[in-house]
Specification:
Layout (H helix, E strand, L loop, with lengths): L3 E6 L2 E6 L12 E4 L4 H12 L4 E5 L13 H6 L7 E4 L2 E3 L2 H11 L10 H17 L6 H7 L4 H23 L11 H15 L8 H10 L3 H4 L11 H4 L2
Parallel strand pairs: 3-4
Antiparallel strand pairs: 1-2, 2-4, 3-5, 5-6
Helix pairs in contact: 1-3, 1-7, 4-6, 4-7, 7-8
Length: about 240
Amino acid sequence: MAGITQLAFKGLQICRSSVVTRNMSTQLPVLYSYWSSSCSWRVRIALTHKKIDYQLKATSLLTKDKDHVYTNDYKEVNPMQTVPALQIDGHTLRDSVAIMHYLEETRPEPSLLPQDPAQRAKVREIVELICSAIQPLQNVGVLDRVGNDKRLEWAQEWITRGFTALEKVLSQSAGKFCVGNELTMADVCLVPQFFNANRYKVDLSPYPTIVKLAEDLGKLESFKSCHPYLQPDCPPKVAKN
């Protein structure tokens, strides 16, 4: 895989950037991640963009799998029993947005936030729109409660409502990336949500700005190398499609 080397070791996948990194600790961070989790994908992108080596611990959201979030051992890692969780610098962080901000504050280069205060605020606005107003309403836990008969309709409704607002915001803020011409946390959050929209067969024709941004971002190595279909826990039959 270009740009990143992945080695299996005792149930962990060691993800090494192709560029030597300046780590805060000699011990590699451990990322608990599930292949199709958009929240996990955000963190994988951020770590890769910042050229931070890490160990990936595949942790399923399904109880049928061996290593899943509902075990007592994982509950000690993350009491919410969700992914991602990142163990880094002697800390355990349990939310993708909090993790991105921690990485930005402790390893500021390459940056994921612009210097201009107004642009920073716009990035945070887009991050919250995606991570608070769209993704939580179509995650696996919610869809399981909705039930099989209604889950697709439910996911499509909330993604569509969110994308309608997001398209308007991005049409005013975007340049090469979501906010101007710098890659930011907004871009890191957009691509996984775009993947979810395709996964749930949302009609994307009303959202040309979202589509162009996401497709262009998807060509970048830091996004491609972290794709769900390339994760060690992705089912082979899914990865082939």
